Structure formats: C-alpha cells, structure tokens
C-alpha cells in the first residue's frame, strides 16, 4: 500500500502566536529576542522580514536596520502548550502524528480513506481546522514520504495544498534548486554551487564515488534525499526527558582553550544533576552559534562507560566539539543537550587485582562531590577550568569558618 504522508508547515509560528495574543502587533515589524545586549533574533514576522531583518541576526544590528521594530521576549512555555494542543487536534485523524518542531507536523494518513475520505480532502480539512481553531494558516504538502511532502509544502504559500502523486517524485524534485532539500543549508549549497550543481536533478545524477570524494560520508545522505528516497516512518509524539544547558558568552570567544573550559563547566553541571538523579544519558547534542550568526550542530550516541563522571564524559565529547569549532570564528553561544536517560549499571571486575580505572575515576568523583556538598561547588575545580579564572585571581568563594559547614 502506498503511503500518504501530510506535512503541515506553519510559517513564522512563534511570531504568529504573539500576534494572536496581541492583534495590534500585526501592524508593526515584530522581532522575538531576549532583552539582553548580545541576544540574537529568534523570530520575525512578515513586516520585519520586508525590512531586512532575519533570524539569527544580532539584535543590535536588527535595531539599526529598523528602529521602529517592536522587540518581544519569546514565551517558549506558551508556544509549547499550543504545539502540544495542535498535536492533539491532529491525533483525531491518525494515531501517527509527529511534531519535530513547533509549527512543523507530519501526519500519516495511510489506510484512513474509508474513515475520512480522500487523503487530499483530509489534508485540506486539517488546514481548515488550524485556521478556524487556532487562527493559523499552514502550507500543506501531501506525498508518499516525509521528505517529498516537506519539500512540496515548502514550494507554496500558506493556505495552499500541494500534492505529489506516487511515481511523480523525481519529476517534481529534479527541477528544484538544491537548497530546498531538507538538511541542505547555505554552506552545503555553496559547496555544491562551486561544482556548478544547482538543481536537485544534477545532484541526483552524480555517481556516489565522485560525490564521496568531496562530501565524504555525507554524500550517501545527499544522494538519497536528491533521489527522493525516504522510508522513515512517522513517529508518534512522545514527551522525552531532556537536560539542556545553554551558555551565552559576555564577549565572543575564539580561544580554543577557553572554549573547551566552557564546555567542561557545562559537562560538570550536567553530570552533577545526573548523579543526583542516578541517571545515565544515552545520547548528546552540541550546538554552537558563531559571532557571524552561523550555527553548527552535532548529535552522537554515548557509550555505556561514559556514564555521568565528569572527565570520562568530557573526553568522549571533546572530539565532536573540536570539529564544530574548526571554522576559527568566535563563538557566542554553546548549547549542550542530553537525552535517552536510563539507570546506570556496570559489570563488576572478575578478579580484585584487575586494574580498574573506572573505579578510580568513580572514587575521585565521589570525593569531589563530598567536598562540594560540604563547602560549595566553587571550593574546588578541575585544572581544565583554571583558565577561566586567570584574569581574576582571588575571586573564588571560600567556606565560612563560622558557618554550619565551616572548619
């Protein structure tokens, strides 16, 4: 049976939410950003986009471009509530509903024709439901895969529907520019343009060996999406536990040693929370934002022996972090996220004379935790983070001798 996947893309979801709460904002250029000196633009409406403001732009630069723009701090909790309510509305049509991001939804309508009628009518009914109950308009794509339905939705305006019938995927994709493919950002599109590869069909016709010489392991995925191959299923929505730590630098940092120290501090804080709750992460994600607004991301599985010991987890993550900062452009923000938690377990050594480095690391970590619980987290630190205190010696907190935890 051919699959029928609907993708609904709500443009400018965050600013649309703010305009629904405060209709007077529709008449003005609207910018979503934190009220900080070094914050970046997180969302804009159509009026602000016409003025030249874009997501990821420094807020100060956006204010200079359009002085009459209204700056509103984002309300992520409110956006999340609306996102979950939309998922519940779509669950009426199919049990397979996926919302990877607020404003982006996949619904698998395969096998629902007898219940709801033709898939195109059902997709249009879902868009009307959004407009009537939420006041939002979506671009709707309908195809046999998540990939093609997402591209189809990206080629139309809000309130329209684009259907790609089975067998017509290549004739639809091949004339399109490569930057319309999911996951092909500005950097990848620029590298493809250097080889005069500007259309999806040109990319799809290149032999895998030739493309691998330029893009390495990424070439397999590029060829797959260019040829419209995407067997991934629509995964039902599941609220997954995540631990996220965000560091915003007071000044753009390019020193590699200091950047690694900042990452280590985040790992320390994360591991402290993981040990308190006796949890082990199964995967981690790293994201950095450079001073020029370019964002780099990576995501990896964690081995069992990484667990929640500071040094072990940091050593495993360090190579991935170093690959992210290869551009040698100053870094403004570092985001570290852990997910897929489980209760830690470990097989004990068979013989007592075996050299167990893990046990040594665990005992050292336990001693550090005991000291910090008694005297505070700042009383002792790893040498890795000492570089952050060189410019301000003597600033570290010392225990109060007369206090309850004193000497």
Description:
Helix 11 crosses helix 12. By secondary structure, the chain is of the alpha+beta class. Helix 7 links the parallel strand 7 and strand 8. The C terminus is likely disordered. 38% of the residues lie in helices and 16% in strands. The chain folds into three domains: 152 residues, Alpha-Beta Plaits, CATH 3.30.70; 65 residues, MutS, DNA mismatch repair protein, domain I, CATH 3.40.1170.60; 148 residues, DNA polymerase, Y-family, little finger domain (Dna Ligase, domain 1).
Keywords:
16% strand; 3 domains; Dna Ligase, domain 1; four-stranded antiparallel sheet; disordered C terminus; alpha+beta; Alpha-Beta Plaits; five-stranded mixed sheet; single chain
Class inferred from helices and paired strands:
alpha+beta
What is the number of strand segments?
12
- Percent range for β-strand residues: 15-25%
Largest sheet: 5 strands, mixed
Tell me, rounded to a whole number, the average pLDDT. Answer: 85
Principal-axes shape call: globular
């Amino acid at each position: 049976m051919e699959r029928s996947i609907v993708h609904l893309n709500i443009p400018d979801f965050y600013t649309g939410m703010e305009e629904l709460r405060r209709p007077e904002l529709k008449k003005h250029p609207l910018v979503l950003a934190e009220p900080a000196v070094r914050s970046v633009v997180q969302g804009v409406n159509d009026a602000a986009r016409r003025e030249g403001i874009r997501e990821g732009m420094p807020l100060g630069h956006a204010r200079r471009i359009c002085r009459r723009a209204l700056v509103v701090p984002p309300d992520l909790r409110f956006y999340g509530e609306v996102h979950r309510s939309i998922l519940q509305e779509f669950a009426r049509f199919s049990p397979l509903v996926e919302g990877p991001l607020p404003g982006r939804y996949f619904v698998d309508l395969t096998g629902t024709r007898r219940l709801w009628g033709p898939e195109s009518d059902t997709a249009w009914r879902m868009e009307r439901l959004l407009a009537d109950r939420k006041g939002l308009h979506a671009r709707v794509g309908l195809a046999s895969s998540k990939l093609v339905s997402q591209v189809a939705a990206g080629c139309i305006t809000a309130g329209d529907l684009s259907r790609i019938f089975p067998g017509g995927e290549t004739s639809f994709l091949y004339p399109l520019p490569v930057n319309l493919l999911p996951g092909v950002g500005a950097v990848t599109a620029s590298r493809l343009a250097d080889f005069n590869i500007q259309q999806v069909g040109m990319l799809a016709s290149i032999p895998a060996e030739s493309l691998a010489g330029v893009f390495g392991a990424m070439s397999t995925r590029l060829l797959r999406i260019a040829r419209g191959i995407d067997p991934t299923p629509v995964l039902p929505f599941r609220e997954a536990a995540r631990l996220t730590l965000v560091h915003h630098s007071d000044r753009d940092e390019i020193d590699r040693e200091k950047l690694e120290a900042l990452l280590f501090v985040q790992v320390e804080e994360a591991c402290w929370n993981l040990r308190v709750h006796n949890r082990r992460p199964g995967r981690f994600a790293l994201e950095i934002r450079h001073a020029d607004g370019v964002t780099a991301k990576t995501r990896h599985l964690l081995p069992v022996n990484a667990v929640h010991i500071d040094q072990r987890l940091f050593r495993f993550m360090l190579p991935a972090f170093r690959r992210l900062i290869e551009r040698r452009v100053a870094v403004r923000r570092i985001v570290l996220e852990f997910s897929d938690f489980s209760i830690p377990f470990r097989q004990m050594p068979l013989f007592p004379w075996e050299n167990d480095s893990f046990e040594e690391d665990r005992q050292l970590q336990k001693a550090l935790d005991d000291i910090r619980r008694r005297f505070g987290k700042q009383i002792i630190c790893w040498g890795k983070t000492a570089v952050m205190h060189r410019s301000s010696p003597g600033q570290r907190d010392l225990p109060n001798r007369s206090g309850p935890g004193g000497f």
